[in-house]
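Notes to self after the call with IL:
- keep both proteins in one doc
- input above output, always
- annotate only the second one for now

Protein 1:
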Amino acid sequence: MHTQVAIVGAGPAGLLLSHMLRLAGISSVVLERGNRDHVGTRMRAGGLEHGAVALLEKVGLGQRLKDIGLIVEQTDFRFDGQGHRVDFAGMTQRCFTIYPQYEIVSDLLQAHAQAGQEILFDTPVTRITGVDTKQPRVYFLKDGQEHELSCDFIAGCDGYHGPCKQAIPEGVLKVYEENYPFAWLGILAEVAPPSLEVAYSCHERGFAMSSFRAPEISRLYLQCPVDDKSDNWSDDRVWSELHTRMDVPDRPALIEGRITQKSVTAMKNFVIEPMQYGQLFMAGDAAHIVPPTGAKGLNSALADISILAPAFSAFYQRGDRGPLDRYSETALKRVWQVQRFSADMCTLLHRFPDTSEFNWRAQRERLRYMTTDPTGALTYAENFVGLPFEEPA
């Protein structure tokens, strides 16, 4: 088999890249170790920045987003027994859209099916060779047999644990990583949220958050120990702790409902530099991870593709390799701004173990500045609605 671009990973980044390459007349093959149901139902990120929405609309994926996406215009920060709303839409004239990752994947899978483009599911990549040559090769298993795919370029959209990073020689990458001393217990519940807004709570017992995936589906989070297990949390304990941390007198109380999913997620920042080597280009979680406090993970992956897809187009349509050679430099400028914002939000909203009373008091004053001072609120608003995306050709 041969293709122009081999794409490892069928998450939003890999599928969007394949879709945009097809629109530009560039061939690609997508290899995914999981099955179709697993890829299409993963409960991951749920919010899109203004730039991500514009990108999806521009490449023909905006209809369902427009029909069922839910617009959010405010964030409610709760601390010291009060709620403090930041009207980010009013300050920036841009909004945030709740449209879960599985809906984006569904749209992309449907677009691939309509175009007759096959995605190779249940296809784990075993090894990658020749990334520093003009014709790298990807080896993968299908139906128990190893196959070889030759290509001009490889796009590593295979997540933090994927095989693409292993193809880069030792000593090339510099890894930046920060692990936090807490995790999130994520809860999915069949109940309408009190209001269609995102609410963060900075409480002495730990962080909590209320969001949603649909008008009747709430997505909630609780800060918990990094080694905690979801089995430790009964439904009664979950709701009791959510009420303790989230409910304040000037806001509607949380509504309880049937919990359908619980999971514990570690918090970390992670970046590799550079995001490319030879004919291999990394995107999304394969190259960078942020704590979900700032809602930037999915958006950062889509932003990478808004740079990478036009760079491939410039090479194949004009013979210009410059944008590809500058891909890592271009992408990392935005990546580090997102890392900075996400790390700031993580340290601002969580109760760190053994923090001093001075730091805890100063932390809440920082929150007060961000939510009540016009300069502090505007800085948050501009970062939350998102930095600009590259405009695809």
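Protein 2 (the one to annotate):
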Amino acid sequence: MKIIVTNRKLCTINFLDKIEQCASENPCRIILREKDLSYNEYSKLYFKCKNICDKYNIPLFVHSFFDFALDNNIKNVHLPFNLFKENISKLNNITKGVSIHSIDEAVTAQNLGADYIIAGHIFATDCKKNIAPRGLGFLEDIVKSVNIPVFAIGGINDENKHLIYEKNAKGYCIMSSAMK
């Protein structure tokens, strides 16, 4: 299963055209990760992307802007671990994804009610230049430590994505390759 994580700054074509292209490839979800926007800018962009995703029946997840999700009765959010942990009491009846970077974070996220986690970064990636990847052993340890779906992120491509499944991850996330 593939998750698309957005970064409009990486796009070489119009961002909404890129969303259309990504949605047409049938990922299991798209996460709108545009953290530099204001609440209002994010809101406008979200609803434009939602119209596109709805055409293809692809769930669109809010990233970081959980207040926006709550204000608009949006039931799909993805949060960085600390933001998730600090605001879990506000996230009832919502599908919650969490980005984690350790076994402790994975277990805590599961115990607090995360529906899935994204673990990374697994391979070297331009998004995390000069930071060593955590590797496949890390991914395997995360998968073994929780009972919720684990998706891998970081440097995943057509040549190495099979390795993710060999570690029993549910799937993988792509950002750079999807946006470029």
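Annotation: Residues 2-172 form a domain with the TIM Barrel fold (CATH 3.20.20.70). The longest strand covers residues 95-100.
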